[in-house]
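Q: Predict the assembly, please.
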Amino acid sequence: MGRWSEWKPDGKKGRKFILSKMANLVTSLCCVVLAAVVVAYAQRRSQLVARNQYERMGSDVTMQCGSLDNDASVSWKVNGTDVKAQHHLAGPRLILTQVDLGHNGLYSCFQNPNGERRDTIILHIGIPPREPTVTCRSNTYPKGFYCSWHQTHQTYIPTTFEVDVQHNQRSLEVQKDAVHKNRCHVRFPEVFSSFPYYVNVTAVNALGKAFTIVSFEESSIVKPDPPERVTATPIRDNPRRLEVTWYSPSTWPDIDSFPLKYFLRYRPLIREQWQHVELSDSTSHTITDAYAGKEYIIQVAAKDTEIGTWSDWSVAVHATPWIVNPVPSTPTTEVDFSGVPETRTSPIPSSKAPQKAEPPVGRAARLLTFFTFAVGNAAIVCVM
Ligand SMILES: *[C@@H]1O[C@H](CO)[C@@H](O)[C@H](O)[C@H]1NC(C)=O
Ligand SMILES: *[C@@H]1O[C@H](CO)[C@@H](O)[C@H](O)[C@H]1NC(C)=O
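A: Predicted assembly structure:
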């Protein structure tokens, strides 16, 4: 309509004025018609647009047909066919007993005797949420931590989560993770704080809510990501050695101020038992007690030197020590490594050792006191 008044076929003002008037008239007319349509639509909307009704599994459910009076007579359909599930009718109400997921569906009611549709209900059967399982961890110490949570039971209906983090009587800003649905990030408001953190995760759906609170101190949730780019390479002329190198996890923000220590485990494929070495502040280690000619599997874990727990194991790498040239199996080669004292790397009894894919947390961490002692020597020996 604006276009009309700008239209200049011959540049005459009078004509332009008339066109502009006409445009106003048309606009007004349009508004009236539109308003009428909106009112009519609003009136019909409650009858035509389906509404949601959420009910607990196992309960008896009453669905009310619109706002019809008690003496109204209606008939019901579900998904366009007659209701076959056990039910009874009470005027404008349909009552289903002991509902389960099979009762889900689109229910429509029609007023008798004309059969005009008066309401449409989407029935969703579900269960209220239970207390979610919550874990928090800092892999970016001292920047911040994240918490993740999950439902222990399926609710069958949409469930959302609210997260509240308190520290020193103050609510902290919580940021949703861009990728993981049930995860959020929090920055440490201060480092070396002795005040505990309280994290309240509340699961909410149409049938109820339930919350879990976890509390922890900064130092207890520190767990780095595993070391990265682990490599193991044979050493020429050394049939019992493997050189292992790795990088600190790239997510760890300040390796200089918050150094990591490392835990190496290795075993030949043919044996179940791992051997372990703990190393402080070094990103390489030479295994000196490998079985000649055997393929090894090697993994590394990381931990803050002072606080927290061990990371998960790094991706496993495989390597086989340098294989002696079959022809000149000279004693010289043997002298090369017989000079090295037998390694004192103690194999952990398998019952106490961290299991295959598990991080060396808890049990292994406790074993470390024993280890640092026994293995410390070995590590020094190995460096020579
Ligand atoms: C109605 O249709 C939905 C979706 O197809 C189905 O899951 C549900 O079981 C049906 N409900 C009934 C009562 O037949
Ligand atoms: C946890 O958060 C929920 C939702 O905000 C709230 O209803 C509940 O009271 C909180 N629990 C505690 C112990 O603060």
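Residues 1-18, 329-384 have pLDDT under 50 and may be disordered. The longest strand covers residues 116-126.
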